[in-house]
Amino acid sequence: MPIRFTLETTDAQARAGSLSTDHGDVPTPVFMPVGTQAAVKAATPGVLKDVDATIVLANAYHLFLRPGIDTIEEAGRLHRFMNWDRAILTDSGGYQVFSLADLKKASGDGIEFRSHIDGSLHFFTPETVIDAEVRLGADIIMSFDYCPPYPCTRTQAEEAVALTGKWAARGAAVYGTRIERNGYEQALFGIVQGSVHEDLRRRSALELLEIGFPGYALGGLSVGEEKAQMLDIVEFTASLLPGDKPRYLMGVGTPLDLVESVARGVDMFDCVLPTRNARNGTVFTSSGKLVIRNAAYARDFSPLDPQCRCYTCRQYSRAYLRHLFMAGEILGPVLATHHSLHFYCRLMRDARGAVLSGSFFDWKKRFIDCYTSGEPDVPGASNRARENKEER
Amino acid sequence: MPIRFTLETTDAQARAGSLSTDHGDVPTPVFMPVGTQAAVKAATPGVLKDVDATIVLANAYHLFLRPGIDTIEEAGRLHRFMNWDRAILTDSGGYQVFSLADLKKASGDGIEFRSHIDGSLHFFTPETVIDAEVRLGADIIMSFDYCPPYPCTRTQAEEAVALTGKWAARGAAVYGTRIERNGYEQALFGIVQGSVHEDLRRRSALELLEIGFPGYALGGLSVGEEKAQMLDIVEFTASLLPGDKPRYLMGVGTPLDLVESVARGVDMFDCVLPTRNARNGTVFTSSGKLVIRNAAYARDFSPLDPQCRCYTCRQYSRAYLRHLFMAGEILGPVLATHHSLHFYCRLMRDARGAVLSGSFFDWKKRFIDCYTSGEPDVPGASNRARENKEER
């Protein structure tokens, strides 16, 4: 069955749609939990289904290095290896090659680098990366892109756009942009680069549009630039992309980032924030971030988020969660991750419902008011409110 | 409802029974997963129910220090605090005071010690410990005992027996041995000490029998003595205890220890082995221990234990589990713990079934033959077989 994106309705630039894959439908806007190494950290597939995640991420760079593409292919590809029968998206790992690996040589042909795990030497080309992603078997696979650092010179940004466009074309030339080698379709998405320069974003988008992908990603954002600037670039770039194709903002972001980006026309998100913060004892709630170890919660028997109906909030108190983190119990990260993934997935479901009912901007205002104001009746609320304001 | 033990049948000294509590029935022989700090490490209550655990342990010493008895009582006691509606047993923490804390002064009255967490100074008496356990609210609470080190002099062992007997009587004098202060009955169990000396074990047992407890534990075993000697003491001590009361062997042990101890008349067990080993990447299987990181499993797509029907074995391969451990993913300990708890709980269910059908000793021989022989068709089996033999 071909992968198909249906744009159901819009509310100004905000969109509600659905991405159909052979591993289930993905209603959008959607948050994709990050399972870099073929596992969402501290969450079983049971938890992911409990929070109604419809698609998760994995990373081809990490999996190439460990356990290796051959192993996963032999296991019956990624869905079977990690016991996830819903949709999967693999990032190519372009970002990771530049940020994690010991880079030896980048050229028009590809990139030579040393593994961040064991120092072994490898060479990636757009062709080898696409081949690896096809063999991993994700429903959506990403082009191999060049993500420049921030800040970078205009020349660097131009080079990144040029290389990303060239590599996108070479990647698409391997098997096409809709790949039918595993008994189901895999869709290849292009990635728009261009740093914070509108003209370069436009140039990058036009190059990709000429190739013609079934979906487009916005890469190289939330890498250090100001929030307002990021949102401007998101809005500008989204406006360049075809309405009937999904738009994926890579590696972003906070709950406020997601809501603001939905308002600017983005459909798909991934970010390590909910899972990474949860493991460190900070969760997202409808009234802002909550630091579980806060002494104020030692005898607070209310749930993490009184507005939340997740497993953790239905069954456990802040006092118990705090105890788990103070005592170093693995159950702390497990329960906190369950909550924060539920929060992110529900946030996107709520946003979708609001777009469908034509009330997205009312809903967005109410959400932001609550999220940034803190709860007046909860210890530490004023601190959290302040923290959230700084976060913007 | 009073806590009631029913001895259903015996097969030589092996017993099948049932312990009824207001938080459900506990069929015996039973393995009790260890939740020292009010959490079974890396296992949610959902996992514990999935492996059909009917009772879990917690530790009063640990909970007294963190988060404090007041906090748990205010939370609605232990069952509610940790979201576990089945039976709970609390160890008094006698063993932990002597093994973990910085001991300042032991006397007939009690023990002064410094917390292993923050060095704070505390004084435990048999009365304060029982009061703490009653407030924690477990269904079964343990007397405050004195567990001598091993090896120890005969004089030390005699002193431990004397102190344990005196403290058991003082503990029982506080609220009696069947306590009705929380709206359900809590049963106080006595603990037999006496190191490896039969006459001291007899003296200790007789002192406790005179007080009259609804259950008896065998303490101070598996602390360094030879396995054969441990099993002799288990058999001897069990023979001194009344047939109509449950017998609990504290802190023991390997799958073989459990099976051999059931053969000698023990009904209840707890041990950190399955959970601790699982977190470190070693699981128990029907053909012995399996070290998940073993390179032989890198492309082994069979389950951890082909004879196991647990969630982990139904859904995941050895190759995936190995990948999780090599990659440092929390999901590795979570899935390995799920398996090993299932293995221990099923082992005791199988033992019970065998006693009920009068075939315990046949079953025991088959189990041990398989457990110690390793699987001939599995990589690393010969190593595991050797390792298991050494373990005895």
Report what the structure shows:
- Two copies of one chain form a homodimer.
- By secondary structure, chain A is α/β, with parallel strands linked by helices.
- The first copy, chain A, folds into two domains: 4-270, Alpha-Beta Barrel (TIM Barrel), CATH 3.20.20; 277-391, no CATH class.
- In chain A, 44% of the residues lie in helices and 19% in strands.
- Chain A has 16 helices and 17 strands.
- In chain A, strands 4, 5, 6, 10, 11, 12, 13, 14 and 15 form a nine-stranded mixed sheet that branches. In chain A, strands 1-2-3 form a three-stranded antiparallel sheet. A three-stranded antiparallel sheet of chain A has the order 7-8-9.
- In chain A, helix 7 packs parallel to helix 8, helix 8 (198-211) packs parallel to helix 9 (227-240) and helix 10 (255-263) runs antiparallel to helix 15.
- The first copy, chain A, is globular and about 60 Å long.
- Residues 376-392 of chain A have low confidence and may be disordered.
- At the A-B interface, helix 13 and helix 14 of A face helix 13 and helix 14 of B.
Topology of this structure?
The structure is a homodimer of 392-residue chains.
Chain A: E1 4-11, E2 14-21, E3 24-28, E4 30-32, H1 45-50, E5 55-59, H2 60-65, H3 69-74, H4 77-81, E6 87-91, H5 94-99, E7 102-106, E8 111-114, E9 121-124, H6 126-136, E10 140-142, H7 154-175, E11 178-179, E12 186-192, H8 198-211, E13 216-218, H9 227-240, E14 247-249, H10 255-263, E15 268-270, H11 273-279, E16 282-285, E17 288-291, H12 311-315, H13 318-326, H14 331-356, H15 360-373, H16 381-391
Parallel strand pairs in A: 4-15, 5-6, 6-10, 10-12, 12-13, 13-14, 14-15
Antiparallel strand pairs in A: 1-2, 2-3, 7-8, 8-9, 11-12, 16-17
